[in-house]
Write a structure and sequence with these properties.
The complex is a heterodimer of chains A (218) and B (651). Chain A is of the alpha+beta class and 218 residues long. Helix content of chain A is 52%, strand content 12%. Chain A is elongated and about 65 Å long. Chain B has eight helices and 46 strands. The chains are: A alpha+beta (218), B mainly beta (651).
């Protein structure tokens, strides 16, 4: 983006849309909390949001995947390659992070939500804060659905000439929780990055709550 | 029946019964082991041993790796002997490791393993071991448990007194067991006294382990047997036992056992460094090889050397002193403080313990008995600190614990004798089954013994194990030394003949143990980093197959266009990056061996097909559920065939 584009984006971004214009501005402390909650989201760039651990007797040292907002890595170096190697027996497609568009989009969504949240801290408009929370819940739901679709696709779209074919068997990892997949038990759980998101939403909700308390007390 | 007759029968019965009981009692007491012993050596399935034990393989040429206290064998590290299982000495990469000035020598007699040290404490980086036959020293990398380097020792008749290292692994020492003409030449054997000499070599070890024969000391033609380097106050010195000061060249068992005392040679290597710096050495022209395994290239390299620096004691005063020591001494062992030097006189009834501070004083006072070829002989009385009496017959070696005791092995009386440093009194003894040679205490020849156990390394086992024909297993015994009395815990068989051994707490080594070779660091000339790089290239009658393995296929696995008379090199890269997933490669009719390729490594098998036909090749390491399917075919056509070179997998 050119400088003027960035400047205009920020300028128009700072303008509160007409429909949300009103007189009531949130209290200072609540707005501060909203700002903190938004900045807190930046931690999502440094921690995985989801983990899939694979437990099997042959891997006492553990093997698994970490899903980040912008990449998929192994629990240990080489785990991703080794998992792809194992999966070829059942005809599962190789997991190639570069070919998953969500990993490109997600960072922008988080950046947008951070900026939006900081905007809320400036503007102090309750309706916009509600919108921020609603947006996050919708995005989260879409994300989980998307994750399910990917899992379904990997688990069901198997190469028909695979070496190991178990009639009726599919290898979709669980969305949350654990599931037995042949000799592996797959345990899929949110990781620290997801908790960061949860805490950020909770803090913002709390800010709304405190603001309304104080408002009614007045 | 008259009463005399009854009395006679009674007496006879009592005599027979008591003899029988006494006999049985002896039999029992020999094997009496109390109930809690089993718990002391029991390592629960799925749990680790506390110590690694490295034993020399003796005539097997290899090194055995065991766990203590269980005595379980984990690995045999190929060192001086070819090992078809791992293609050691058969693959193109490892052939250079066996190079000597006599050509490839595919075997040796490995005696003394020695763990590298920092500040006199075993640090677990490397294990050194000597080759006695064709004088060599090997260095084993303890991150991979593979032999990293083998250096030949020039001007030596046999490398027995080796590789005893200095406190910070500055040097590995080597002394010739057989004196020989130096430089070696055609002389009458009975001109021994006139022509034969000994050498003591100092091999410099640099920070990444690289060895170099830095200098040698030319010494009188005795047989130099064993050694230990000084530590603490005696750091800077190394001590070498010698026998055959009679300089006999035939029937040594008699002729080399005549003198009441032979010598320990005390060499001041710091002084030697000064003389080298001053240029007081002679350069001897000779020939020897240094072979090392290039870790990045996964390939052995041989370097020929033609010169060595030699110091002559008569021209270098203060370099060597002789310490008279009774009766053909064998082991020479320095206590943890570095002050006491114990010698084991094979044919002596006492262990003389020399005092380092007394040695220094005697040198200052010029307390010399005589001198041999310019080497002053110190007076025994001025340097001995004490004699341990009643040590049994044939005392050989001493190791030390962390509580001020020495433990000496006595070969002829087949026992370990425990004695106190300072008072020199024997406090305990325990039989060894049978004929103990060396013994080992974890850290027992360092500044910091970990104690806990002594391991007896025995020469004969006789009735201790199920018989296996004329040759019986060799054996070690684990003895608890944590209490006042030594307590036998366990017998366990060993590979080859265990001469010396070294033990070290497991955590020092296991934390550095490598799991894979990162494929991106593989700089082998013929490596492939991915399946798409595999190919077959012909250059005249040389055919190079750039092959990859990964569970569970070879690429390529169908090869055609090879002809009788071709020399085929299979350069096989294991693309796996997972721990404990080697792949094997074996091709029918190979005159060398299989390959066993570790994850991320490349190895090469040379194959010269002699007849037309189709030859299977396959993976020999049960790598996965479809291991049996991991195979391929190579088609060999006639000399003048026009079958084009082609290769594929999955077409």
């Amino acid at each position: 983006m050119e400088y003027w584009q960035i400047r205009n984006t920020i300028y128009w971004g700072m303008q509160i849309p007409q429909c949300f214009k009103g007189k009531i501005i949130m209290k200072h402390n609540s707005r501060l909390l909203i700002g903190v909650a938004s900045l807190f989201l930046i931690l999502m760039f440094f921690f995985p949001i989801w983990s899939i651990d694979l437990l099997a007797p042959q891997y006492p040292e553990g093997i698994g995947l970490k899903i980040w907002i912008n990449q998929i890595t192994g629990l240990k170096p080489n785990d991703l390659n080794n998992i792809n190697g194992l999966n070829h027996y059942i005809g599962m497609k190789a997991i190639v992070p570069d070919s998953i568009p969500e990993l490109t989009i997600m960072p922008y969504i988080i950046i947008f939500m951070v900026i939006f949240g900081i905007g809320n801290a400036f503007w102090g408009k309750r309706k916009l804060v509600y919108l921020w929370i609603a947006l996050f819940i919708i995005l989260g739901a879409i994300g989980m659905y998307d994750f399910y679709i990917w899992g379904y696709d990997y688990g069901h779209n198997l190469n028909p000439s695979a070496a190991i074919k178990v009639p009726g068997m599919s290898y979709q990892p669980p969305l949350i929780g654990s599931k037995k997949l042949l000799n592996f038990t797959a345990v899929s759980l949110p990781a620290f990055g997801s908790y960061v998101l949860g805490v950020s939403v909770l803090l913002t909700t709390a800010a709304l709550y405190f603001d309304s308390k104080r408002g009614s007390a007045k | 029946m008259n009463s005399t007759y009854i009395r006679m029968i009674t007496v006879a019965v009592v005599i027979i019964a008591s003899v029988f009981l006494v006999h049985n009692g002896c039999q029992q007491s020999k094997d009496l082991i109390s109930g809690d012993v089993a718990q002391q050596v029991y390592v629960k399935p799925g749990t680790y041993d506390d110590f690694y034990l490295f034993t020399s393989g003796g005539f097997s040429g290899q090194v055995g790796v065991y766990g203590l206290p269980s005595g379980r064998l984990f690995r045999v590290i190929p060192v001086f002997s070819q090992d078809a299982e791992r293609a050691w000495g058969y693959s193109e990469e490892t052939k250079p490791m066996f190079m000597t000035s006599y050509g490839s020598v595919p075997w040796d007699d490995a005696h003394h393993p020695k763990i590298s040290q920092t500040d006199g404490i075993a640090d677990g980086r490397w294990l050194f071991i000597n080759g006695n036959n064709t004088p060599r020293v090997a260095r084993i990398d303890l991150t991979t448990f593979t032999t990293a380097e083998i250096i030949e020792i020039p001007n030596s008749g046999g490398n027995h007194g080796s590789p005893f290292i200095t406190e910070n692994t500055e040097y590995v020492v080597a002394s010739t067991r057989f004196s020989v003409p130096i430089p070696n030449r055609d002389v009458a054997i009975n001109s021994y006294k006139e022509n034969f000499k000994g050498t003591i070599s100092f091999i410099k070890v640099d920070n990444d382990g690289k060895m170099n024969v830095e200098f040698q000391v030319l010494v009188p033609g005795f047989h130099y047997d064993l050694a230990h380097s000084g530590k603490g106050p005696s750091h800077g010195w190394a001590f070498f036992t010698s026998y055959n000061s009679e300089q006999a060249n035939t029937l040594l068992e008699v002729n080399a056992s005549q003198n009441d005392k032979d010598f320990i040679a005390a060499v001041n290597w710091k002084k030697a460094e000064e003389y080298i710096k001053q240029g007081k050495f002679k350069t001897f022209t000779t020939e020897y090889y240094r072979n090392y395994f290039d870790k990045k290239k996964h390939t052995g390299v041989s370097e020929k050397k033609t010169e060595v620096k030699v110091l002559i004691p008569s021209e270098c005063p203060g370099l060597v002193y002789y310490i008279p020591t009774p009766k053909s001494p064998h082991g020479v062992d320095v206590d943890p403080s570095g002050e006491y030097i114990a010698a084991g006189g094979k044919l002596a009834a006492v262990i003389p313990v020399h005092s380092f501070s007394k040695i220094i004083k005697a040198i200052e006072n010029k307390d010399f008995e005589t001198s041999i070829d310019g080497i002053p002989v110190l007076k025994y009385e001025s340097v001995v600190a004490g004699e341990v009496k009643d040590v049994g017959l044939g005392p050989l070696h001493t190791e030390f614990d962390n509580e001020g005791f020495g433990y000496t092995s006595s070969f002829i009386s087949s026992e370990i004798v425990k004695w106190k440093i300072g008072t020199w009194e024997v406090v305990d003894r325990i039989p060894a089954y049978y004929s103990i040679g060396h013994l080992c205490i974890p850290g027992g020849d360092t500044k910091k013994p970990w104690g806990k156990y002594v391991i007896a390394l025995n020469k004969i086992t006789k009735d201790r194990y199920l018989p296996t024909g004329p040759e019986l297993t060799q054996s070690a015994q684990l003895i608890d030394i944590s209490g006042e009395k030594m307590k036998l815990l366990l017998d366990f068989p060993t590979i080859g003949e265990p001469h010396y051994a070294q033990a070290i707490p497991a955590d020092i080594i296991m934390k550095n143990s490598k799991k894979i070779y990162p494929i991106e660091e593989n700089m082998h000339q013929y490596a492939v980093k991915a399946e798409k790089e595999t190919r077959v290239v012909r250059d005249g009658n040389i055919v190079r197959v750039y092959m990859s393995t990964i569970r569970t296929h070879f690429v390529p696995d169908n090869i055609e266009g090879i002809k009788v008379g071709d020399v085929v090199y299979f350069h096989v890269t294991n693309l796996e990056q997972d721990w404990d997933i080697p792949h094997g490669f074996a091709v029918k009719g190979a005159n060398n061996s299989e390959l066993l390729i570790m994850p991320g490594a490349t190895e090469t098998l040379k194959w010269e097909p002699k007849r037309e036909g189709v030859y299977p090749f396959y993976c020999t390491d049960f790598c996965s559920a479809l291991h049996q399917e991991m195979q391929g075919y190579i088609r060999v056509s006639g000399k003048d065939s026009s079958v084009p070179l082609s290769w594929n997998t999955g077409k």
